[in-house]
Amino acid sequence: xxxxxxxxxxxxxxxxxxxxxxxxxxxxxxxxxxxxxxxxxxxxxxxxxxxxxxxxxxxxxxxxxxxxxxxxxxxxxxxxxxxxxxxxxxxxxxxxxxxxxxxxxxxxxxxxxxxxxxxxxxxxxxxxxxxxxxxxxxxxxxxxxxxxxxxxxxxxxxxxxxxxxxxxxxxxxxxxxxxxxxxxxxxxxxxxxxxxxxxxxxxxxxxxxxxxxxxxxxxxxxxxxxxxxxxxxxxxxxxxxxxxxxxxxxxxxxxxxxxxxxxxxxxxxxxxxxxxxxxxxxxxxxxxxxxxxxxxxxxxxxxxxxxxxxxxxxxxxxxxxxxxxxxxxxxxxxxxxxxxxxxxxxxxxxxxxxxxxxxxxxxxxxxxxxxxxxxxxxxxxxxxxxxxxxxxxxxxxxxxxxxxxxxxxxxxxxxxxxxxxxxxxxxxxxxxxxxxxxxxxxxxxxxxxxxxxxxxxxxxxxxxxxxxxxxxxxxxxxxxxxxxxxxxxxxxxxxxxxxxxxxxxxxxx
Length: 509
Description:
Number of strands: 32
Structural class: mainly beta
Oligomer: single chain
Number of domains: 3
Largest sheet: 8 strands, antiparallel
C-alpha cells in the first residue's frame, strides 16, 4: 500500500491507528511520540484535516493540539504514518533464519540448573517442530549410553539355576534353585522352582523363566521373630554408580514382574548393611494369578557410603511374610537407621498362611535414577554365557551326575595311601576363598591311577591356590579312599550315574 513518511519497519504490517474519545477541548494525548504533525494524518467526522500552524492541528511528541475545540459528539482518529504494527500473520514457511536476529538464542537467559522433567525442548521431526519433555529425552539418552554396561541386578531373568530346578521341603534360609536368589526365614514349608513360562504378560515381555515359591505347609500364626524373605545380596564395589553417602547421591529404581494367587501389598526394601540403613517401597498385586509389572522408587542417600570391597553391602528384600517384630512399625520412605519393626510394616501378603499360596518373580532390574513405568529403560537381556559367568563368581557347579552321568572332576596325584590331591581351575575369578560342595556317597567317586581304580566317598578342601581378589584354582583332597600308592598320577570322576555325585564351589555373600 502507499505510505507517507518513513518506510514501515515490518514486511507484513499496516499503519498504527488511534481512535479518540472527544470532548470540548483542543488538547489530546497521542499513543506514540511523533516529531511533528506531518507524522500523523488526522480525520475528524470522516474529513481529513490539514496539518500545520494556522491549519487544523499541530503535533509534538505525544501532544496533539487542535486549532478549534471538538465537541463530545465528534468522531476523531489519527493514523501514525511512521509507525507500523504487525497485523497480518506471515504465510506458512515465509519466516527463515535470515529474518531472525543473530542473538535470538544467546540473548535469552541461560539454563542455570538441571532441567525439570516437565521442561520442554524443540526438536525437528522430519522438518516439523515438536515439543519434547526433558523426562523423555533423559530416558532416551540414559538408554543409549547404558547399552555397553551390564545390568546391576544379577540373573534378573532367572535363566541360570545351577543348583537345581526344584527344591522341596524348604523350612529355612539358603540358596536352593535360581542363582543369586536367596530365601531367608522360617515361616512354613515351601517348594521353590525355576518355573518355565509359556504365556502371560511376562512371557510376552521376553521372559521365559521365573522364580516361583509355593507354600506346602502353612503357618498362619508365626512367632514374633519369624520371617519369609526373597533377597539378593550385593558387593559394595558393585554399587559405586549410586554415589551413596556423597553430596551427589543418586536415586534408585527397582522394577520387576510379579505374580501371586493373593492380591495385596508387598513391601520391598533396600538394606545398607555397611551402615545399617533402610528404605522401603510398596507394590500392589491387583489381579490374582496374573503377571503384573511393578516399578518402585527410592530416594538418594547422602549418609553412609558403601565399602569398596567384596563383602556384603546391600540387600534387596521382598518380604513375603513376617511376625510382629517386623511389621509393627512404619515403612520408611526415606533412608533411616535400620529398625526391624519397619521392615514389613506395609506388607499384607502373609503368604505363609495357606498352602494355596504361591508367589513368582522375574524380569528384575535395578536402575540408577528415578523412572516411572513409561520412562523406565528397557530390560537388558544378557547372553546366557555372560549371565552364567556373572553367577559363577558366587557359585560354580563343576561336575554333576544330572549334567553328564559319571562327571569328570579333575586331575592330580596320589599323596599317600588315603589321600589324593585333585586340582581344578575355575572358569572365573570367584568372590573369595571357596567352600566345596560334594555329596557324600559311599564309593560314589572313583580315582584312576597306575592302570587301576580306587573308590572314595566325597571331596574336601585341600591345599588350594588363592589370591586377594578371589579364588582362581582349587586343590581338593579325596575322603574315604584306602590302599593307594603315593607318587602316582591320577584323575577322578563320579563312579555312578545314579549316585547323585557332584562337585561345586561356593563363594556366596
